[in-house]
Design a protein that fits this description.
Number of helices: 10
Radius of gyration: 18 Å
Order of helices and strands: HHEEHEEEHEEEEEEHHEHEHHEEH
Number of strands: 15
Helix content: 25-40%
Largest sheet: 8 strands, mixed
CATH topology of the largest domain: Fructose-1,6-Bisphosphatase, Chain A, domain 1
Structural class: alpha+beta
Shape: globular
Strand order of the largest sheet: 4-3-5-6-7-8-9-10
CATH class of the largest domain: Alpha Beta
CATH superfamily of the largest domain: Fructose-1,6-Bisphosphatase, subunit A, domain 1
């Protein structure tokens, strides 16, 4: 018969325990990025055309080490290192530097993203902004927090009063959505993109973020964070998913109006 301590070690980890490790891992990875951040950072171009730096790889290695120490049997998927198979009920998803272009140019608006899917459901998310010393985090049923304080989306209900963000005007227009349409329908538009833009929405500093060309490591933390902050994260058809290339995160109140605008083509 297993001892009481052995039995506890066999129990699945709580969402709180997963969130603690996700936060620790994201901050550890963030510290590695700060070792070379500032000024121009040399980069290579990957097969998909996106940039990668030595810091991306070093940060992901550090994040993986933290996760492995706590949960050696879990699955880990990272943008740079691919998938390390393990328990399919616990899948960690890592983007060591989200916003690599910002990082390369010495702009502090880049993020470390760490998420956990539990039994296939995105359940834990962390957006850590190393150069700004900000962390936005959530676990399903536990709310969203910003540097330890409760975080909530804005109360703006009219699209005409909304501040809407997007990573790239050119990428948005490649989907058949003219930027002038977005601009004419909203109050303010800014290019505070990538994970930073979604962090602004989750903390009520912006009202919506429109993004395109996402991978699962870009999206996985965003669904639990925005929903726990009182908002929504969906594809452009309104489905709550982390597997779509094109996504909308919002305070919820302007979501339907923005979806209608995005679904129109030229």
């Amino acid at each position: 018969m297993a001892s009481r301590s052995e039995a506890r070690s066999l129990e699945p980890p709580s969402l709180g325990a997963l969130l603690d490790v996700a936060r620790t891992a994201a901050r550890a990875g963030g510290r590695r990025t700060l070792e070379s951040f500032g000024g121009r950072v040399p980069a290579e171009t990957k097969d998909d055309g996106s940039p990668v730096t030595p810091s991306d790889r070093a940060a992901e290695d550090e994040i993986r080490r933290v996760i492995r120490r706590a949960f050696p049997g879990h699955t880990i998927v990272g943008e740079e290192g691919g998938e390390a198979p393990g328990d399919p009920n616990f899948r960690w998803i890592i983007d060591p530097i989200d916003g690599t272009q910002s990082f390369i140019h010495g702009v502090p608006l880049y993020a470390v993203l760490v998420a956990v899917e539990v039994a296939g459901r995105p359940s834990v998310g962390v957006i850590h902004l190393p150069a700004l010393d900000e962390t936005v985090e959530a676990a399903v049923g536990r709310g969203c927090r910003w540097n330890g304080r409760t975080a909530h989306v804005s109360a703006i209900g009219d699209l005409r009063d909304a501040t809407v963000l997007t990573t790239s005007v050119r990428a948005l227009e490649s989907r058949g959505v003219p930027f002038r349409r977005l601009a004419s329908a909203t109050h303010t538009q800014r290019g505070w993109g990538d994970g930073y833009g979604f962090a602004l929405v989750a903390t009520g500093r912006a009202d919506a973020m429109v993004d395109v060309g996402l991978k699962v490591w870009d999206s996985a933390p965003l669904l639990p964070i925005l929903e726990e902050a009182g908002g929504r994260f969906t594809d452009w058809h309104g489905e709550a998913t982390v597997d779509a290339e094109d996504a909308l995160g919002s305070n919820g109140a302007v979501h339907a109006a923005l979806l209608k605008l995005l679904r129109r083509r030229r």
